Amino acid sequence: MKRELLDNGNIWQKSDGRWIGLVRYKDEFGVTQRKSFSSKKKKTLQAKMTDYVKNFNEQVANSDESKKPLKESMKNWLRVYKFPEVERTTYDRYECTAEHQIYPYIGNKPVGDVTPADIKKLLTKHMNAGYAFTTSKKAYSLLKMFFKQLYQEGAIPNNPMALIDMTKKDNYLAAQNKESKPQCDMVVVFTDEELEQIKAEAFKRFANGKPF
């Protein structure tokens, strides 16, 4: 949960002449907190509170994941979450996929502004550019992991991958004027001579008549 200002502060003067200020905000756990200020002079107190509110808003903006460019956010996500939990070869593959199949298309867009249409366009561009189906599928899977975690942590209000399915392989290849042949079409057919050789080997016996 993001920190949030609840007001810009309240000011009052105590009976001893000192000025008191109070700013209320919610912390990252959603709990209401208070920041208090005091000064002998009202203008000094107001300046303190103005600076505090300005710095607070800047910190919130800098920590708002949804406003960061996707490239910056995903790089950080890979380092913090994926590097410790996957094999190094897998991590290197993730980085390579992000660098070549994701960042050039939506890397500069704020994470929170990425839409399902953006993802669809990215996958279509892969297809039209002649990328192998498996290459595009890796980018799709990486984006799905990335946005799922951001959404679960409350960093973004919506998950743009929730309703996006990867294009079926046959359709993907058909769009590239390629053919996806079933495995049975690739079975080697033996000639009659080769079949006789296989049968001869299969029925070989030892001198005592026992099969090899």
From TrEMBL:
Domain of life: Bacteria
Record GO terms (molecular function): DNA binding
Family: Belongs to the 'phage' integrase family.
InterPro entries the record matches: CB, DNA_brk_join_enz, Integrase_recombinase_N, Integrase_SAM-like_N
Keyword DNA-binding: yes
Record-annotated Core-binding (CB) domain positions: 68-151
Keywords: DNA-binding
Protein name (database record): Tyrosine-type recombinase/integrase family protein
GO BP term (any one): DNA integration
Keyword set includes DNA repair: no
